[in-house]
Amino acid sequence: MSPxxxxxxxxxxxxxxxxxxSGQKLFQIHELPDDLxxxxxxxxxxxxxxxxxDGHLSRYPADRPIxxxxxxPRSEDAKRLWEAADFARGVPAxxxxxxxxxxxxxxxxxxxxxxxxxxxxRGVPAVPGHVLxxxxxxxxxxxxNYGELFDVRVEPDPTNLAFTSAAIAPHTDNPYRDxxxxxQLLHCLENGATGGxxxxxxxxxxxxxxxxxxxxxxxLLTRTPVPFVxxxxxxxxxxxxxxxxxxxxxxxxxxRFNNRSTGTLRLPGGAAPDAFYAAYxxxxxxxxxxxxxxxxxxxxxxxxxxDNVRLLHARTAFAADGRRHLQGCYADLDSLSSALAVLxxxxxxxxxxxxxxxxxxxxxxxxxxxxVAEHMLRAGALAEAAGAPAHLVAAALLHDVGHFGGTGAExxxxxxxxxxRAGADxxxxxxxxxxxxxxRLHVAAKRYLCAVxxxxxxALSAASxxxxxxxxxxxxxxxxAAFAALPGAADAVAVRRWDxxxxxxxxxxxxxxxxxxxxxxxxAQAPA
Length: 528
Hints:
Elements: H1 5-10, E1 38-44, E2 47-52, E3 57-61, E4 93-95, H2 96-101, H3 103-116, E5 118-122, H4 131-136, E6 150-152, E7 168-171, E8 183-191, E9 198-202, H5 203-213, H6 215-223, E10 226-231, E11 236-241, E12 244-246, E13 252-255, H7 274-287, E14 293-296, E15 303-307, E16 311-315, E17 324-331, H8 333-358, H9 372-385, H10 390-398, H11 408-412, H12 419-427, H13 433-452, H14 462-470, H15 477-484, H16 489-501, H17 516-525
Parallel strand pairs: 4-5
Antiparallel strand pairs: 1-2, 2-3, 5-15, 6-17, 7-16, 8-15, 8-17, 9-14, 9-16, 10-11, 12-13
């Protein structure tokens, strides 16, 4: 089935339709003509080009399915529904320090929370308040009437059963809020009590089982608003939501389940609640099936991050005089999903660069005795050995990215490919100006040095002397003065010198992987 012309045009990515930095649309949907149609369609070099009936030109990648649906990361389609046995070989976990230091480890942890509903961080300093640092490592703390954080321990005057030593059945937290906090973090500071083990149940799996076993009960629970209520001396909260929430396509998207906080159900028109309670009881029984419950014993330094609109968490009873102290806080899935998406985007950027080095980088380097990749890697290594700051190491490493795409041959045929500008423009999607400007100006820096530094030109390689002529030759006095006044001139000159020294055949060349952590740190500072 051909996609709607309005869908296609609405997703045009040209700079006339979308802001190149933010990606936000620059037109209103009602501004498209009523008789919009495709006037012409061509495909070449991996790009589909469409000329519209109103004259607008759109381009789309040919290898990307048009109108293909991505799963909603909040719905069951994007989840791994599980039972306890699925984690017989271990739960998704990582060391806190590795999580902080290694973007790939952090990506794996956040992906586990998004897909399986939870992850365990081990070795988080068992210091009061540190759970807030865990939440801030991927997003923002959601402050509630309990404050930024709350203590889960036996209290002398508890306002919630969680602050006693009693067993707590599987539940989601704060169902009486609208919106509900979508993430919960629990950090173990002390656990010397007998009992007090934690349990997790996949609420989506429980709802999926109800749908399979008694579909009419499932349907009833998705359309019946349930009142959830919390009251204490200073607070009164209420929200009415179904126990199981589905999206417009019928996919499970949220579970709110907390028997302790369920208020008095009153159905419209005085309808009898018997059918609802039969379905409610059946669903509750499913959540208590032993095969669904994953048992965990948190030890000091463990921090559990869990999806609070999917996973039900529980606790066994423990001796009231036993010392058990957890600290918790709330956060939200949108910030975690954002952090994960940015990490994946940065990983994709590094993978794309590494692929360029391994692929096109294997070609000869404009008449020199090294390949393009060897030249760039050597330049990066020289900058690193000189103790240059990270942004200059990156600029030296990436300075000739503009030659990728076959444009280097143009330069050797006598046509300036303006590879400094092309490389900077390409890198700007990933890096800030501290990296891109030395790349943009490194050709101008050669012309500048030829004009102001005696003996510099005589040391150029034969190929570099040839390209100097193609690129405009040495600067005149006015050009040199204007270049020297540019904010990035000094950095560009430094990159140029490493560029000139990185053409020796047989010199040691490090692998691209050595620079990935450095580049990842710079990507983390670039505008999203």
